[in-house]
From TrEMBL:
Lineage of the species this protein comes from: Eukaryota, Viridiplantae, Streptophyta, Embryophyta, Tracheophyta
PANTHER family: PROTEIN MIZU-KUSSEI 1 (PTHR31276:SF15), PTHR31276
Superkingdom in the source lineage: Eukaryota
Protein's name in the database: Protein MIZU-KUSSEI 1
One Pfam family here: DUF617
GO biological process: hydrotropism
InterPro entries with a match to the protein in the record: MIZ1-like_pln
Species the sequence originates in: Perilla frutescens var. hirtella (Perilla citriodora)
């Protein structure tokens, strides 16, 4: 079975799919560990974030989605809403398992840095130097949406907040993992923006933030 859970409404979407049983059990065990790490992050917004500075502006709420195969690289998509086209689509040079391990410590801050001398709109920067919790982990690259990406986003239109697994595209893969949440967008300047996972009232959990900046 494929299961998608909308944590905002509690609605569970079940669609049958065929996966070999032994591999499915092993995959579900690994996926359960990932979700235990990632789902609490849907309930945290850094209290230290301040917008007192006149140069800092709220960009409103956006939908951010991490998705990728268990042994593949992670894609990161920013949308105005779940039905809109991507404002930005990046591919991270790290596997899903790496991000899950980082989140076990209760904090994940992804910083993407580019050269300020290359003047272009922030979302048009082709390559970013990537840091996870202060450690350089390679690069993130901007890419155009593919037919596969469009299919993934279409399947997830009904999911506002949640984590789950989409069905395998072929026999060689066991499915595509995803984490989706509402993020608050903060615009610091034409050279910097950040995205902070929204904290529902009365909840607490991990902090998850993504920073884009030119230096």
């Amino acid at each position: 079975m494929r299961t998608m859970i909308d944590l905002g409404s509690g609605h569970i979407i079940d669609t049958p799919t065929s996966v070999e049983c032994g591999r499915e059990v092993r995959f579900r065990r690994s996926f359960r560990t990932l979700v235990e790490c990632m789902v609490p992050a849907c309930c945290a917004f850094p209290e230290s974030l301040s917008t007192d500075d006149d140069s800092v502006q709220s960009g409103g709420a956006v939908t951010c989605t991490f998705f990728g195969h268990r042994r593949g690289r992670v894609s990161f998509c920013i949308q105005e809403d779940t039905k809109g086209p991507p404002l930005l689509l990046l591919e991270f040079a790290v596997p899903t398992s790496y991000l899950a391990r980082e989140m076990q410590h209760g904090l994940l801050r992804i910083a993407l840095e580019s050269d300020r001398r290359r003047r272009r709109p922030l979302y048009d920067v082709p390559v970013w130097c990537m840091y996870c919790n202060g450690r350089k982990v390679g690069f993130a690259t901007r890419r155009q949406m593919t037919a596969g990406d469009a299919g993934v986003l279409k399947l997830m239109q009904s999911v506002s907040v949640g984590a789950g697994v989409l069905p395998a595209e072929d026999d060689g893969e066991l499915g595509l993992l995803y984490l989706r949440a509402t993020f608050d967008r903060v615009i610091g300047s034409p050279d910097s923006e950040s995205f902070h996972i929204r904290n529902p009232v009365g909840s607490s959990g991990q902090e998850l933030s993504v920073f884009l900046f030119r230096s």
